[in-house]
Amino acid sequence: MFRRTVLxxxxxxxxxxxxxxxxxxxxxxxxxDSPSAAASLSGTVNVFAAASLTESFTQIGKDFxxxxxxxxxxxxxxxxxxxxxxxxQGAPADVFASAAPKNMDQVTDKNSxxxxxxxxxxxxxxxxxxxxxTGLKDFGDKSKKIALCAPQxxxxxxxxxxxKAAGIAPQPDSLEQDVKAALTKVSLGEVDxxxxxxxxxxxxxxxxxxxxxxxxxxAVNKYPIATLTKAPNADGAKAFVDYVLSDKGKAVLSAAGxxxx
Length: 261
Known about the structure:
Radius of gyration: 26 Å
Strand content: 15-25%
Distance between the termini: 74 Å
Strand order of the largest sheet: 2-1-3-10-4
Largest sheet: 5 strands, mixed
Helix content: 40-55%
Shape: elongated
Number of helices: 10
């Protein structure tokens, strides 16, 4: 009798132990952040992004590749209007990040976009401000050398909004196809000032100086991001967008001076 009792107790203990092992089996393996999920991604993710995202997305791309060793991220940075045109003409893009909803709306081959950051304009001048620029009114002074973004580019459209709000008729010496080109004019000392994004002034710290102006609040650019419906690497595209929208991606964008929508 005693022997049968001991055996029954041992059997019950083994059963409980096995049940406990089943409850402790990790469920994380099904998560997209798990090593197995990361390993399932491969190939190249082609990201078309607004020029003002150059520094932040380059860093995010490096971080994403580190998290997904089988993936390579390539970027095409340019004016959002030019990128939208390239995509509509069949360029092999997986992800599009625009500096304005208007240019995102022009792309027919896209999934539902998500607004992920906002940006505002700031005046950029060469170090020491040799042109003695004091504010937005100087952009209407023909004696000043001025660079602006072209009207079809998001920073150009935003510039038109702030000039209208300030009642100023700008007198640009050049109209650039993306914000980085306008910024380069300043850093090389070719113009006295340019109207660019505050994030670009921050990225070029030491090469340019920034001057804030009150009318900047009249034109807040919203940046949407979307995967493309005909993306060559659909899984990689979704994973990249998810990373941009993650806390890690947001931290990089915030450090670059972008605001949360």
